[in-house]
Design goal:
Length: about 140
């Protein structure tokens, strides 16, 4: 079984609309923060990847299913793991959980690119560090 990275967030006033409900676009920010912290958890960062490997990780596409809302001061868990990968990209499944119930689910397609935004092969060291989080290696 693959590892799942968990990141916790609390909903702040700035995250909500006039009704105290998390604004839909802010879930993308939560997912981005979780991915950034997942990189840190395996000893990497976006800056380190750019500097040491001359590559960036960009979002190619995402699919989000909003099931239930989150509200001001809710405590949320974001679980992330990789469901598939290719030579240049991977698809990450991210789920936001509130009170043990999945409220938002996303599939994020991430691609490794060079400075000209051309897809490149995932560096071996990075793939090795990500491997415990991959559930379906190709």
């Amino acid at each position: 079984m693959n590892k799942i990275f968990n990141h916790k967030v609390k909903v702040y006033y700035e995250d909500t609309d006039a009704g105290g409900v998390v604004y839909y676009a802010n879930y993308l920010k939560y997912f981005e923060r979780a991915r950034t912290e997942a990189l840190a958890d395996i000893g990497l960062s976006n800056i380190k990847i750019k500097k040491d490997f001359e590559t960036l990780i960009i979002v190619k596409s995402c699919s989000i299913d909003y099931k239930k809302p989150a509200f001001l001061e809710d405590n949320l868990d974001i679980n992330s793991h990789i469901i598939s990968n290719s030579k240049t990209s991977f698809i990450m499944n991210q789920t936001i959980i509130k009170n043990k119930i999945a409220i938002v689910e996303a599939k994020i397609h991430l691609v490794f690119v060079d400075e000209k935004i051309k897809p490149i092969k995932i560096p071996k060291l990075i793939l090795h560090k990500l491997n415990p989080y991959i559930s379906n290696t190709k």
